[in-house]
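The records we work with from here on pair a chain with its fold. The integers have meaning only within a learned vocabulary of local backbone shapes. A complete example follows; check for yourself that the lines match position by position.

:::
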Amino acid sequence: MAVHVEAHGPPLAHRSSRVDASILGIFLFIASEVMLFGAFFTAYFFVRVAAGTPWPTPPFHLPVFVAGVNTMILVTSSFTMHWALQSIKRDNHAGLQAGLLLTFLMGLTFLLTQILEYSRIGFAPKDGAFATVFYCLTGLHGAHVAVGLMLLGAATIRAFRGHYSSEAHHGVEIPGIYWHFVDVMWIVVYSTVYIL
């Protein structure tokens, strides 16, 4: 005699065989973040190009060299993040731990250098449209770095506790995708705000 078991709750969601739901989720989240940055870059465009505001507005100066060194630190952290992910895909736990730890430390160095830059830059958001847009764009990116550091911190702790393997590494891959987004976004911010 067959027993009929009634299922409770909603039916299982349709899943694609090509894209994991969590990976798709982080890409959709990043798409929304690109739109957020796009709104701030629109303000930058109107202040700098449409209104013709001098960039930087005299007598202010931007620390291009320090920001350039900071850029190299953040770009390097993308390589260590990639190393961490590739390591765990090969079940290399030492490489995973070293890669995540280095990525976290470089991200922290970037953020602390940016905070130090703010304390010494010589202008505040209230000092005109240039200063407001500068702090908005760099501050928005800094907030994203802080979120990335929280994700990396959690992933690093889990890595040292042995939670990842070549079969189960989404906890490394998803923060890695976010971290690469943060790095690429900084290259755009640095190029437009400090260089152009």
Remarks:
- The mean pLDDT is 92.
